[in-house]
């Protein structure tokens, strides 16, 4: 299967995963390994990646030598907060410039604040960051973020942590059809079938956290998600058969059937 290319770098896996909500670092490591993910996102405001030297460091469990660390701005509610957070991440990660921007609108829905997201994206791109951006499923906003210079657009499928799956596939298809950068579903996936559907729509990849970490068996769910993403991508590449309302089509050839009779015509 062809690689996922983000900001000029190729990745075999189209599944990106988060690091929150796991029981401990051992479970985090095991689930990420089972997922096959190569890009792992880390909430800078909630995780220790070296800013607190006397606390356990998440990077000991997911070493940057093995994974591409994607610092994110979870918990930020303004452009200024998000920009400051990613500047800190760049210092902690020795100049690392691939980041995930999310600016939230309120703590209840965690829906993106688009005005602040656009403002932060402009600043970060100007400062040389390669910005992957969490956004609504509005095709016009997605186009604007791409025009600003974001390297990937990440529309939600449904609210963060809701597990509701894809609620508006039509908007996602419009975004995918018009984008010239990778489109990755971010938020709302609840189980493997949701991941497969997103990939069958033509998404370039999926980022998820809660769907794996909150499962009864996170490691097994991570494995299931890996397979679902791969299967969905292959199905999209293969091209599904057309849907035919109210009409069947036999799977077997109809010519040369022994003792065949002409079926009755519908009245």
Q: Can you tell me about this structure?
A:
Helix content is 34%, strand content 15%. The strands form four sheets. Strands 3-10-9 form a three-stranded parallel beta sheet. A three-stranded parallel beta sheet has the order 6-7-8, with helices on one face. A two-stranded antiparallel sheet has the order 1-2. It contains eight helices and ten strands. The termini are far apart. The protein is of the alpha/beta class and 267 residues long. α3 (114-126) links the parallel β6 (98-101) and β7 (130-135). The model has no long low-confidence stretch (mean pLDDT 90).
Figure out the total of helices: 8
Indicate the overall shape.
globular
Strand order of the largest sheet: 3-10-9
Give the rounded overall mean pLDDT: 90
């Amino acid at each position: 299967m062809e690689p996922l290319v983000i900001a000029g770098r190729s990745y075999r896996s189209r599944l990106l995963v988060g690091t929150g909500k796991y029981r401990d670092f051992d479970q985090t490591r095991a689930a990420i390994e089972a997922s096959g993910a190569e890009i792992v996102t880390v909430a800078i405001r909630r995780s220790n990646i070296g800013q607190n030297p006397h606390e356990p460091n998440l990077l000991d469990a997911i070493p940057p030598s093995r994974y591409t660390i994607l610092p994110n701005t979870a918990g930020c509610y303004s452009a200024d907060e998000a920009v400051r957070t990613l500047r800190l991440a760049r210092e902690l990660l020795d100049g690392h410039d691939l980041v995930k921007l999310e600016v939230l609108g309120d703590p209840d829905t965690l829906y993106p604040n688009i005005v602040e997201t656009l403002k932060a994206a402009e600043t970060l791109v100007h400062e040389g960051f390669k910005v992957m951006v969490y956004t609504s499923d509005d095709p016009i906003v997605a186009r604007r973020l791409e025009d600003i210079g974001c390297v990937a657009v990440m529309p939600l499928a449904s609210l963060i942590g809701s597990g509701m799956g894809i609620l508006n596939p039509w908007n996602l298809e419009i975004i995918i059809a018009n984008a010239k950068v990778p489109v990755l579903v971010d938020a709302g996936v609840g189980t493997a079938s949701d991941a497969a559907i997103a990939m069958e729509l033509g998404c370039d990849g999926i980022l998820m956290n809660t769907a794996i970490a909150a499962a009864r068996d996170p490691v097994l769910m991570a494995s299931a998600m890996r397979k679902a993403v791969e299967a969905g991508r292959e199905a999209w590449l293969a091209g599904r058969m057309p849907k035919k309302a109210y009409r069947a089509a036999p799977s077997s050839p109809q010519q040369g059937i022994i003792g065949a009779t002409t079926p009755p015509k519908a009245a």
